[in-house]
Amino acid sequence: MKKDEIRKTLSDDIENFRLKAKHYESLHLFEAEKYAEKLASNLELALTTMPSDEDTDIS
Fold it and tell me: CA distances (Å), 12 to each of 29, 44, 50, 57, in order?
């Protein structure tokens, strides 16, 4: 898998976990909502530090 493909997958996962958090909130499953939000936030943080295919390698 290329770096950009991984970035796309992570972006999709972030969106999916945010949707799950909203769903859990509607069911009053507050712990599950909090977990899904934290997971999405952590993935988002990882995504911001992940290189893309256009980035040059550091020697």
Answer: 23, 11, 15, 26
What is the residue type of 58? I
CB 25 within 8 A of CB 17: no
Residue 59 within a domain: no
**pLDDT, averaged across the chain:** 92
* pTM of structure: 0.81
* Lookup: tokens for 48: 């911001």
Q: Mean pLDDT, to the nearest integer, of 28-50?
A: 96
Q: Give the chain's domain count.
A: 1
Identify the domain containing residue 21 by its residue range. Answer: 3-48
Q: Does 58 reside within a domain?
A: no
